[in-house]
Every structure is written in structure tokens, then in C-alpha cells.
Amino acid sequence: SGFPVKVADCAGKETTVTKAPTKIVTSNAASLEMLLRLGAGDRVIGTGFPPGKGTLPAELADQGAKVPVLGDKTIPKEKLLGSGADLYLDTFGAMPMMGGAATAPSEEEYAAAGIQHVQLLSTACAGTPKAAKAPRTDLAAVEDDLRRVGAVTGTAARAEELVTGMEQRIGEVRTALAAVPAEQRPSYFLFDFDAGTKQPTAVCGRQVANAVITLAGARNVFADCDADFKPGSWEDVVAKNPDWIQLAVRNRGSEDATRKAYDDAEAFLRSFPATQGLKAVQQGHFIRLGSEATTIAGVRNADAVRQIAATVHPDLVKPDTAKSGQ
């Protein structure tokens, strides 16, 4: 059955998981979806950032809806420590934008509560000193996370199937775009509407989204900042004058509310003096694609690659009819 399994955190400190966990709490919808797809959904006893309606694919939606919600956003510390969990799957770690770092339990507190703390390194560690400095251009780290979660939950064979599926989907896009030279790959700005409009957040080279954008045959306008996220300025965006803008919003819990958030993001760019003259805004070159699928590790990163590629290279890549994991 592959136990014991050793897993490291962002700092390289190892935890030994001696047997398959039976009571798992997860930090958000993307890691919950990972567990559901791995076949470990019946062992999940709680989640934060729950999946809104329409987030999960139909075949997982009912099971996902039954998972108790321990927090609408980050799970409050007392609730997490008192949950009775034996494993906490943590996507965010020290990601500042999720507000988790300041209020998260310490490793000592997890240990005292009998909870093994396992991080999704590809997302949680991207901003830490140990993270790879070069811009991220592939999803190897996300695939490694899938394999690690598979190992920790005793579902390693299924994890390999999911990784193979992701690689196949990305491979199809890579082949279709092989002949497109770098200078013909459009420039692309991920507008994280929920991070605020006063100053835009730059999604930098170390972030998962940089790999998604690159694999989709586009060029992230902020690929060269050495971080995962960084406060940007509208002047920077104007200077880059992107060909395409992704309206990235978090799921609002219903399709109508999420659509309204996309509409609001687009309306802001069309009316804000600094952005209304941008090439992408003038041409209506907007991509409506949720921030979770782009910036947070998950099987859907491969779907996001396909959706962006089909939008910015419509003659080479067709929209996807099948969603991953089916």
C-alpha cells in the first residue's frame, strides 16, 4: 500500500505519513476536487473556500456538495484544530493573498491536535525563498503535487492516471502550437479582479498561472518579476498594453453571481480612464476564466491551458468539449 510516505513542506522539513488518512480537511475547492478525483472524497470531513455551484464537474458535484464547509474563506484556526482531522491538505501555505499565513496554526499546534499538515508545494511555496527562481513554464510541480497527494492518501495509481490525462491534454496544445514563433505569441495580462482595482496585482513568473499562460501559447506580461504575486501599477499595465486580458474572478457560489462578477470586471476596464484605451479593451479581447483554475494547483490547470490556447490561437486549437478526468 506504499506506506510510510515521507513528504516535505516549503522549507524542506519532512513529515512521515504512516498510514492512509481517514479524516481529511482541505483548504479550498481545487484541493477538494483533487481528492474527489483521486477517489478519496469519502474521507474528506471539511473544506475552506468551498466550491460554488457549477465549479465541480457534474460527476463530482453531488459528492462535493456534501462536504461540510468549515470556512467560507480560510478555515478559522480553532475550527481547523478542533475538526478531528488526521490530515490537512493546504494549498496556500504562506500565500499572502489568501490571508492564511498570519492566522494559520503553527506546526506545533497541528502536531498537538494530531493533524498531519501536507502542503501543495507548487502553489504554497511559490513565493518562498526556496522556490525556483526561473519563470515557471510547465506544470511539472502541479503534477508532482498530484502524485504526492496520491501517495499520502493511498491512491497513487489513480494519481498517475490523472497526471497522464493532464500531460496528454497539454501535449495536444503544445503540438498544435509548435510552429508559432515567440514573437507571434500574444501578450497576456491576468487581471485578478478580486485582488482589488486600486492597484492591479502582477501575477509573476513563479506562479502556476505563468506556466498555464506560457503553455497556452501566450506571453505573461509580468513573467519577469521574480515572485509569485507582486503589487503592480496601472502604469505598468498601460506600458505593456497586452493583446489579451483574462478577467480572473473567484467563483461566487452561483453561475449568475459569477457571471455578474465577470461583467463587473469587464465594465471596470472599459470605464477606468487608465485602461479604457488599452488594445485588448478596445478590441474586446477578454477571456473569462476563473482565477482558481489558473493560479491554484489542480487538474483544471490543463483545462485552463486549453481554454486560453483556443481563444488566442483559434485557428490552431479548437475549444475543448471534454473536460479533464472524464
TrEMBL record:
InterPro entries with a match to the protein in the record: ABC_Transporter_SBP (IPR050902), ABC_transptr_periplasmic_BD (IPR002491)
Cited Pfam families: Peripla_BP_2
Lineage top rank: taxon: Bacteria
Family, similarity comment: Belongs to the bacterial solute-binding protein 8 family.
Name listed for the protein in its UniProt record: ABC transporter substrate-binding protein
Signal peptide as annotated in the record: none
Annotated source species: Streptomyces rubellomurinus (strain ATCC 31215)
Domain named Fe/B12 periplasmic-binding: residues: 23-316
PROSITE patterns, alphabetized: FE_B12_PBP
